[in-house]
């Protein structure tokens, strides 16, 4: 049994009669709850003594109120004493003062430890005093004893919000708590809390707070916000009015109510719980319709449980705001079981698995029963409430507020998301972002702006943006600003001064800020592009300008030429294109190295620029080649004059690496429109003319002609055919016999290449050999000749001509290749011919180009048995002193000395000298180009060893040579 009876306290004698009448002094487990609405006239200490004397075993817990609940009825400024008799439940009361603890949280933990010792199942707590942090108190209890059921309410003082009192049989406190613990294994406990808050209006962020005092919301004074949204009357009636419109705070995933305890003189407010900066608060109102629906449902469920006692802790605001329903609700609770309690300043809400909360505008109760088995009923009651006209009006207003709030919430959500997007973009943007008003004064800047320019927000807000722009750029920036105000996005680069005094280049974008169709300012977005600009300029320089001379390169020059041509066409004027090629520049590179060569070219470019007329554009195409455009009065006479000045300026001696050089150049010129309509054709024709200048010895200027173009086309066609000739088997070898002048015997032949093209027919070696050397094709062609000649000579040897030798010409390009020696070895290996039957003919220039390398290769050839011959001897320019060091076997006298060889001519003396020198060097001498018997006789007389020429025999096809071999064998058998 958990039976409750109650009385309204009048005086001592009335109390004693009530106790005696109900024989309350006979119960050892008796809970006495005292709820007084007139603590100022009630002698609480006297009442405590009376109860202790009369009921020495009773546990007392009480508090001051803002209204009392006596047997389901509301009383005002009365004292209600409830006596609850337990059979199987033990009780223990506690009285704590907050000042005895470090804080409210520690007070809660201490109480929880005491409750744990008592093995408490439920506890009723009456906090008193506005300095008690109820949230921290409940958190302290929950952390230590999370499973205990907690109920109760915050002591009131009839809406004065000055001082609440709590007491037990042991004493009284105005800054602490009174509590009573219930311990039993047979007690049924049902806690309940009914509070239905509905958010309304915008959200506010706590921007300054300390403990439970809020100094600013959204950087504004809280009282100013309350006045703006709720009016002067609300401010005047605080803190009582605050119970009707509290704040809602999101805390640990739940919305909890925050009540204003009192306004402070500095525009701040004190609330009933601790808040932190960054917390979000919204106004709230009680949703009566939901409260009623929830209450009726709870009454129905509670009725089925048939509790024996109900302790109710109700919010004082409900008594004022919805008194009719509150009275009816309490009456229905009384119909279920004795319902007693009080109206408080805050009610404890307990839900299993969650931290208890101090809530508001709520009804909480604790339903108790010790006879659990007998508590079930079969016939549920119907609970209802007939709404009054006033209530219906309030409900309609509630619906309106709810619907309006939904609209506001949707709008706020959209605005908040937009604000968050904007804030994220604004604050976290790597680019600097700012805004100005219509006058160009700064209204906001982001952190990147501060970092970029060094100015803090308070230094720059309100100041004109133009004051930070370099003076020269102000008119242009002002123009872009006004264009942006007219709705046109603006992009531009501008130099801006930073706080440190540094001037950097920035890329800016201005866009209008439009509100309700009207422009109210501009946004600016920008970044520092100083380094980027330097890099771009460097890239441009590398991409379009020559590194060594600083002149435009091929790409840039061609681009500029194209522009000049467009202007020339428009104005119907002539322009000239000159190609300037330095003569024999390779000698400088080879002798001094490329670095020195580059320095020489730089000097040459500067010399050319010194003599150029206005309207000229000089570029470096590649290597030792420059190009020039003359865009003003480009007559033949002017081109000639400019060219002569260039040639004259270049020809002055150049000193480099302690050496002095005389440099000349070959110039080719083409004129627009006569020699070409576009840049590519003009450049090509100028090149052709340059080549003609070089062919004529250099140090001259040549104007392009169509004849040159035709020759160039023929040469280009020949090169194209030559590249395919080898793979199409268009080459073949002829063999010219070599005879021993002393015996007249045939001792070998010289392999001579021929080209039979299907379209061109037989092409002279004098035409295609130089071209093959120039293009590098000579390497493959020479390799083919070497392999084919060795193979053929071996075949003849196998036919019986065992001592027959073969001579093969080797080009300078082929000889200088790193793999040449290996190529010779491979040709011998593939053919099977012995090395001593192979003679390689090299020109003087080939061997003397790189003497050390040539000697090394020639010696290697000698080591494997291959003979080496100097071809066209006597036509070179090098010193004869090299001859004694060259490992050679044969000197071959050039045909130019043999062609006119007659008795009593100067050629006889030259040929005699060469033959004598050959004998002195112990090498054989061969005369080529023999045309007459007289020449044969003279050569014999001069003791020349071998000869070849048309008089002996012209070059023969393979089959013809074999036929000649056969006849030779027959006549010498």
Automatic annotation (TrEMBL):
GGDEF domain boundaries: 573-706
InterPro entries: Biofilm_reg_signaling (IPR052155), EAL_dom (IPR001633), EAL_sf (IPR035919), FIST_C (IPR019494), FIST_domain_N (IPR013702), GGDEF_dom (IPR000160), Nucleotide_cyclase (IPR029787), PAS (IPR000014)
Residues annotated as domain EAL: 715-969
SUPFAM superfamilies, sorted: EAL domain-like (SSF141868), Nucleotide cyclase (SSF55073), PYP-like sensor domain (PAS domain) (SSF55785)
PAS domain mapped to chain residues: 418-488
Annotated protein name in UniProt: Diguanylate cyclase
Organism for this UniProt entry: Cytobacillus oceanisediminis
């Amino acid at each position: 049994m958990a039976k409750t009876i109650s009385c309204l306290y009048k005086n001592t004698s009335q109390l004693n009669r009530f106790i005696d009448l109900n024989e309350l002094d006979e119960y050892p487990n008796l809970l006495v709850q005292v709820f007084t609405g007139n603590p100022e006239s009630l002698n609480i200490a006297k009442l405590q003594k009376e109860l202790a004397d009369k009921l020495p075993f009773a546990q007392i817990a009480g508090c001051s109120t803002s209204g009392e609940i006596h047997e389901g009825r509301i009383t005002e400024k009365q004292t209600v004493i409830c006596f609850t008799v337990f059979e199987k439940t033990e009780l223990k009361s506690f009285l704590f003062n907050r000042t005895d603890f470090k804080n409210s949280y520690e007070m809660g933990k201490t109480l929880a430890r005491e409750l744990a010792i008592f093995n408490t199942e439920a506890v009723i707590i009456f906090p008193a005093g506005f300095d008690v942090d109820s949230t921290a108190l409940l958190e302290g209890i929950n952390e230590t004893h999370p499973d205990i059921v907690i109920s109760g309410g915050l002591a009131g003082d009839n809406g004065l919000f000055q001082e609440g009192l709590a007491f037990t049989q042991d004493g009284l406190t105005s800054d602490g708590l009174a509590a009573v613990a219930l311990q039993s294994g047979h007690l049924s406990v049902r806690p309940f809390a009914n509070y239905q808050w509905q958010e309304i209006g915008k959200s506010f962020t706590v921007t300054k707070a300390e403990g439970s005092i809020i100094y600013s919301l959204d950087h504004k004074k809280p009282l100013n916000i309350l006045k703006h949204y709720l009016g002067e009357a609300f401010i005047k009636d605080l803190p009582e009015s605050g119970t009707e419109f509290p704040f809602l705070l999101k805390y640990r995933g739940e919305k909890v109510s925050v009540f204003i305890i009192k306004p402070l003189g500095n525009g701040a407010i004190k609330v009933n719980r601790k808040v932190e900066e960054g917390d979000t608060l919204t106004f709230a109102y009680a949703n009566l319709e939901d409260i009623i629906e929830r209450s009726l449902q709870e009454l129905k469920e509670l009725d089925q449980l048939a509790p024996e006692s109900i302790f109710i802790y109700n919010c004082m605001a409900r008594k004022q705001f919805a008194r009719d329903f509150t009275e009816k609700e309490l009456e229905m609770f009384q119909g279920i079981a004795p319902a007693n309690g009080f109206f408080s300043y805050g009610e404890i809400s307990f839900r299993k698995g969650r931290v208890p909360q101090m809530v508001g505008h709520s009804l909480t109760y604790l339903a108790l029963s010790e006879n659990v088995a007998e508590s079930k009923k079969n016939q549920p009651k119907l609970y209802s409430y007939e709404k009054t006209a006033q209530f219906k009006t309030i409900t309609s207003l509630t619906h309106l507020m709810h619907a309006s709030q939904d609209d506001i919430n949707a709008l706020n959500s959209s605005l908040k998301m937009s604000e968050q997007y904007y804030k994220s973009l604004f604050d976290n943007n790597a680019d600097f972002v700012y805004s100005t008003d219509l006058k160009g004064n700064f209204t906001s800047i982001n952190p990147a702006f501060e970092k970029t320019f060094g100015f803090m927000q308070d230094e720059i807000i309100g100041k004109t943006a133009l004051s930070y722009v370099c003076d020269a750029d102000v008119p242009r920036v002002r123009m872009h600003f006004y264009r942006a105000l007219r709705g046109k996005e603006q992009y531009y680069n501008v130099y801006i001064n930073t706080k440190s005094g540094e001037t950097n280049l920035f890329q800016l974008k201005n866009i209008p800020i439009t509100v309700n169709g009207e422009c109210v300012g501009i946004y600016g977005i920008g970044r520092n592009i100083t380094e980027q600009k330097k890099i771009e300029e460097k890239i441009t320089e590398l991409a379009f300008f020559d590194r060594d001379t600083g002149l435009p390169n091929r790409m840039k020059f061609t681009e500029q030429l194209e522009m000049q041509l467009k202007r020339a066409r428009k104005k119907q004027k002539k322009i000239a294109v000159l190609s300037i090629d330095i003569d024999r520049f390779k000698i400088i590179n080879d002798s001094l190295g490329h670095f020195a060569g580059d320095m020489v070219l730089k000097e040459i470019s500067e010399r050319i620029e010194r003599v150029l007329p206005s309207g000229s554009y000089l570029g470096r195409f590649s290597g030792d080649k420059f190009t020039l455009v003359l865009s003003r009065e480009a007559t033949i006479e002017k081109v000639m004059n400019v060219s002569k000045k260039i040639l004259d300026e270049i020809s002055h001696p150049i000193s480099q690496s302690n050496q002095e050089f005389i440099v000349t150049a070959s110039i080719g010129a083409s004129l627009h429109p006569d020699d070409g309509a576009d840049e590519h054709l003009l450049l090509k024709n100028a090149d052709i003319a340059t080549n003609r200048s070089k062919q004529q010895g250099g140090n001259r200027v040549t104007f392009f002609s169509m004849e040159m173009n035709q020759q160039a086309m023929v040469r280009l066609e020949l090169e194209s055919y030559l590249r395919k000739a080898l793979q199409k088997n268009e080459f073949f070898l002829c063999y010219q016999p070599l005879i021993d002048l002393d015996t007249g015997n045939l001792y070998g032949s010289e392999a001579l290449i021929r080209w039979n093209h299907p379209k061109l027919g037989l092409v002279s070696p004098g035409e295609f050999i130089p071209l093959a050397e120039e293009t590098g094709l000579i390497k493959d062609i020479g390799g083919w000749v070497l392999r084919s000649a060795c193979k053929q000579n071996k075949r003849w040897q196998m036919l019986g001509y065992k001592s027959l030798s073969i001579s093969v010409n080797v080009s300078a390009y082929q000889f200088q290749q790193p793999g040449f020696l290996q190529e010779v070895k491979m040709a011998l290996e593939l053919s099977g011919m012995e090395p001593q039957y192979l003679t390689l003919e090299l020109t003087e220039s080939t061997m003397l180009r790189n003497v050390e390398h040539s000697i090394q290769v020639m010696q290697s050839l000698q080591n494997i048995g291959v003979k080496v011959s100097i071809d066209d001897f006597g036509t070179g320019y090098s010193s004869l002193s090299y001859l004694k060091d060259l490992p050679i076997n044969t000197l071959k006298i050039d045909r130019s000395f043999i062609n006119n060889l007659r008795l009593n001519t100067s050629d006889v003396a030259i040929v005699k000298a060469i033959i004598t020198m050959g004998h002195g060097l112990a090498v054989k001498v061969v005369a080529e180009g023999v045309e007459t018997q007289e020449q044969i006789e003279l050569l014999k007389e001069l003791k020349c060893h071998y000869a070849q020429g048309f008089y002996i025999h012209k070059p023969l096809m393979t089959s013809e040579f074999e036929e000649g071999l056969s006849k030779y064998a027959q006549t010498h058998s």
